[in-house]
Amino acid sequence: MKQFRNPDTIHAPVGKYTHQIEVTGLEKLLFIAGQIGMDHEGNLPENALDQLSIALDNLLLNLEAAHMQINHVTKMTLYIVGPDMDAAARREILRSKLGDHAPTMTLVYVVALANPRIKVEVEAFATLDS
Predict the structure, then answer these.
(1) How confident is the model over 43-61, as a mean pLDDT?
(2) CA distances for 49 relative to 21, 37, 59, 85, angstroms
(3) Residue 47: domain span
(4) Is residue 22 scored above 90 in pLDDT?
(5) Which of 117, 26, 115, 42 is nearest to 74 (CA)?
(6) Would you say residue 50 lies in a domain?
(7) What average pLDDT does range 84-111 have in this prediction?
(8) Coil vs helix vs strand at 85
(9) 17, 56, 87, 88: which is deepest, by most CB within 10 A?
(10) Quick one: angle between helices 48-65 and 87-98, nearest 10?
(11) Under DSSP, is residue 59 helix (H, G, I), strand (E, B) or coil?
(12) Does the residue 106 lie in any domain?
């Protein structure tokens, strides 16, 4: 079972995330490697927002392959090259892919990722209750 909590003793989340998720009675735990914005054919768009959208689609496809859905994600880490991505557009893409689901989430700005063309990477953990 998962309990989503935002303790009253700390500030409210400053974005679309939850401060903590307690998982008990775990049946399945899925670790998803960093997903980049490359489509199935190997195309990698230049635009970072397009890469974010595709990376999140790849995350959803990984979940589907494990018979899980977006609401099973308990932790996401977004790695974005540089702080220049439009924050409002980033939030809208996340909202469109996550819906009402608000996993724990960390955004990390980095100098570079594995390849200079890659501007976004999304890593996640998912749990399926017993």
Answers:
(1) 97
(2) 28, 9, 15, 7
(3) 27-129
(4) no
(5) 26
(6) yes
(7) 96
(8) coil
(9) 56
(10) 20
(11) helix
(12) yes
* Burial of residue 106, with CB atoms counted within 10 A of its CB: 0-12 exposed, 13-18 middle, 19 or more buried: exposed
Length of the chain: 130
Give the CATH number of the domain where residue 62 resides. 3.30.1330.40
pLDDT in tens, 37-48: 999 999 999 999
Spatial contact of 71 and 101, defined as CB atoms under 8 Å apart: yes
Looking at the 3D structure of the chain, how many domains does it have?
1
Tokens coding 22 = 């307690």
C-alpha span between 14 and 6 (Å, rounded): 11
Residue 95 maps to a domain: yes
**Three-class SS string for 103-130?**
CEEEEEEECCCCCCCCCEEEEEEEEEEC
Rounded distance, CA 42 to CA 58, Å? 12
Model pTM?
Answer: 0.85
Whether 7 contacts 20, CB under 8 Å = yes
Evaluate whether residue 7 is within a structural domain.
no
